[in-house]
Amino acid sequence: MSDGDGELEARLVEQEEFEPSDEFVEQANVSDPDIYEEFEENWPQCWERAADMLDWYDDYDTVLDDSDGPFYEWFQGGTLNASYNCVDRHVEEGNGDRTAINWEGEHGETRTYTYEDLQREVNEFAAALRDLGVEEDDVVTLYMPMVPELPIAMLACARIGAPHSVVFAGFSADALATRMNSADSRFLVTCDGYYRRGDALDHMEKANEGLGGVDHGVDATVVVDRLGEDGFGHDLKGNQHDWDELTDEHEGEEVDPVERDAEDMLFLMYTSGTTGEPKGVKHTTAGYLAYTSWTSHSVLDLKPEDTYWCSADIGWITGHSYIVYGPLALGTTTVMYEGTPDFPERDRLWEMVEEYSVDVFYTAPTAIRAFMKWGSQFPDDHDLSSLRLLGTVGEPINPRAWKWYYQHIGDEECPIVDTWWQTETGGMMVTTLPGVGTMKPGSAGPPLPGIDARIVDTEGEEVEPGRAGYLTVNKPWPGMLRTLYDNDDRFVSEYWQEYSNPDADEWVYFPEDGAKIDEDGYITILGRVDDVLNVSGHRLGTMEIESAIVGVEGVAEAAVVGGDHEVKGEAVYAYVILEDGYEESEEMRERITEGVEDAIGPIARPEQVVFTPELPKTRSGKIMRRLLEEIANEEELGDTTTLRNPEIVKDIQTKVGGN
Ligand code: 6R9
């Protein structure tokens, strides 16, 4: 992968280890290195420390029930409410006038919600949802862009015990329908549109189209009016309601938070896997909230008086855990931004860091690579001295990008936490503790206290330091997914098959990432080992993209692989065989691209569509993806002797190179 052309001081290029400053360590929430040992010696009781960060109605009886692995249960017997923990308790503690959410629209308009404001809005919308017929355990789908009504709706759902299923606004109508169908969701909250690079985007059209694809009845849809006069004139029909009108009707109403069992579902989040069907990852109330609170405290070092900004979209797990639940549970001010980092100029984020005096900033390597490309004059023009800590998530960060972030954003004063985790893990798993550990650019760090992550070979034996292997997690943790919605079998086969020994009741979680470990126990993530791509930090299943392409008229067969990309990390390369009678053409290429956008969304758009008469296949008829990847990356080709049709390779290479 190219390192980008961002300028970096020579002395930093050589440096392999970095220490947090004394000043940082002194103020850090966690700074005692003994914490690793404490957790290990006292496992699983150590997790009480996370549970104690929450307010409970009834205390739990047991920390961990492991009698039915891998269906673990945490904090059994306890009852609580996530909305109460993220909102009401801060107001009751006298902090109602502290800012909960600082929202900024792309055009610069701002909205500030204190915890008291948030409490009022959450209550009113919870009352509205009840009135629409939403009952405890009904799944409410939220197909919304980055507007404040999204976290408000999430917390309103949590208040009444209705799990939410947030669908990223950039996903297509088809993707919305698939997720609503899969979750049997009869309620939708959506938005008329939003702004991107100055243009108003019509979101309602996609929402309506998606609703058309839902195969059961939909009881009600609520629509946020974001665009006002810039709107596209969609009339609300039948059971569609306007957010403002609804909440006006319920003005001042209060809804008692429902007492949820620790193990009751808080939300579903769909994510890509190796098959064409997205997986409905189920997270529960207590374990998830305790875990995101604990990691927000220990890794993000959040304090109630901090202003914290995670630039992810709430439509992904990072936004759930570290824009909404973790920071709000701690009573922090969380920043939300609607638009892109380069509108109106490439310094938009730094302008906002300065304006809001952001203390802690969390973003993705793909963004950092774009900032590097744009050049350091954009951050250099702003006073970023409010920053105390930086973080990254979503994909491996190369040392050069890490150091650029360290130098140009953190002014060599802020520690960086490179946090490895997944939708399924609920929260961070492998990273340094910023107040404790040495940082090594390119390596996420050791597993967090209480997390038993290892690097193993195909037999499950730990590999020597420096050797590539597979990452596994050998003990459960509170934030873990509990199952896949309505599909316990797939839950077991996707995550607990490879390395577990069911006869001995030994369960090992397999996240499907490759990794290596060094002498100090620092883990470097090498990337996915399944057929899932990581495009700009977003997980996309190759099967999902392939089935979208094969759905295009005239396409006979398709294979999708990831090719290296300077900014996106990975990009989608599609190799396509056409049916007889169809010719390779620009029009065909466009139809394929559109097909992918319709089925998934613009994020899955292929970087290159390569037409080929055949795909390289082994004698047993399997597509040799490794070879297609090497071709996409213009790398030297590995062994081709097992191919049935080696002559096709040259052809494809010429096409990729010459395109
Ligand atoms: C939080 C999130 C999960 C996959 C994961 C891995 C990759 C995430 C990483 C990282 C290297 C990091 N990943 N963080 N790779 N270093 N710090 O991104 O969840 O969307 O489910 O993706 O992302 O491959 O398995 P999700």
Automatic annotation (TrEMBL):
Residues 544-622 form the AMP-binding enzyme C-terminal domain. Transmembrane segments: none annotated. Its EC number is 6.2.1.1. Coiled coil: none annotated. It comes from Halogeometricum luteum. Pfam families: ACAS_N (PF16177), AMP-binding (PF00501), AMP-binding_C (PF13193). SUPFAM superfamilies: Acetyl-CoA synthetase-like. It comes from the Archaea. This is Acetate--CoA ligase. It is an enzyme of class 6 (ligase). Residues 34-86 form the Acetyl-coenzyme A synthetase N-terminal domain. Keywords: ATP-binding, Ligase, Nucleotide-binding. Residues 93-477 form the AMP-dependent synthetase/ligase domain.
